[in-house]
Structure formats: C-alpha cells, structure tokens
C-alpha cells in the first residue's frame, strides 16, 4: 500500500438518510456507498468516515479534518453539493464528486463551486485512483495560485499605504520621496514594527487630526 495514500484522511459524503424501513432506492444507495468505500479502500485510501450530506456536515468536517472529500451524488446531487461547499468554505479541501448526472451546465457549476474532479457513475474501481490523484494535484495547484494572488493583492495594498504615508510627509514636512521613505523606515526600526504598520499609523493619525 502506498504510504502517502494511507496517510490521507478521506471522508465519503452521502445524500442518503435512512428511514426506519428503507425502501428499494435507499437500499440501492447503501449498496452503492458500500461499493464506493471498498473501491477507495482497495486503492489504498484511508476512509475515516461516511457522513450524510445534511446541515450538520460543516461541523462534522471541522471535527474530522479530512484531507479529501468524496461525494456520492448519484441522486440529490445538487442538494448534497450545497452542503459540501458550505462545509469547505472557510477551510478549502479537494472534493471529488461521483455522479450519474449528465447535465453539463450543472457539472460546470459544480467545478466552479469547488469540485476538483468529477467521476461518472460506473467508473471501474481501478480507474478511481488516477482520478483522485489528478484531483489532489489540481487542488494543490489552485491553492498555490490563490496564495500567489493573495500575496500580490496584499503587496499592492501595502504599497498604496506606504505611498500615501510618504505623500503626507512630503506635503506636510517638505520632504523628498527618499527622505520620507527614510523617515518611515527609521520609525519602523525604532519601534520594532513593519514599515507598512508605521505608514498606516501615520495615515490614521493624519485622518484623526484632519
């Protein structure tokens, strides 16, 4: 067994909620869930829980902290996906959806909502692992791009704050741009703060005094 796979904590999310006397459709869903679980176990994945896709899912996901979420959306796919997206809104995780829904518009929405990969119903067990591998790789790539974008936005915001603070010093104290920058840098060093923090404090003080 692949040690990396064995260390991955996988949760299966199901749309079903069994009644006291399950009907044929519920029994079929139970059997499909069993087959899916066995396929994941045979592929070497560590399936730590099987959860219903209900309103309590976000809390359960938060407690278990899985590395990968596999959604069995053979039926009621749209309803269950909403719960999964809500459960991973604050802590993003790779999501793989197993479904027989052939509505391409819905599938595009599912991917846009955060699904990393889609697997058609009836996919042979031996083909599941490659799909999950791709889903994990795609998720990691997207997260790296998100971090890069967030860093770029943060850097741009910091630059705007710094430029505004230097502008205040230049206009109010008659300093040149290099002198204003040096003044801010010295204040940051003296106070043990980041340059942007000193700049923001200067702006806040200027706004307060008018």
Please report the number of helical segments: 8
Structure summary, number of beta strands: 5
The first-to-last residue Cα distance is 67 Å
Profile the largest sheet.
Answer: 5 strands, parallel
Spatial order of the strands forming the largest sheet: 2-1-3-4-5
Word description of this protein:
- This protein is an alpha/beta fold and 210 residues long.
- Helices cover 61% and strands 14% of the residues.
- The chain has helices at residues 3-7, 24-42, 57-64, 77-87, 104-113, 128-173, 177-191, 195-209, and strands at residues 9-14, 46-52, 68-72, 95-99, 115-120.
- It has a five-stranded parallel sheet, with helices on both faces.
- Helix 4 links the parallel strand 3 (68-72) and strand 4.
- Helix 6 (128-173) packs across helix 7 (177-191), helix 6 (128-173) packs across helix 8 (195-209) and helix 7 crosses helix 8 (195-209).
- The radius of gyration is 26 Å and the shape is elongated.
- The N and C termini lie far apart (67 Å).
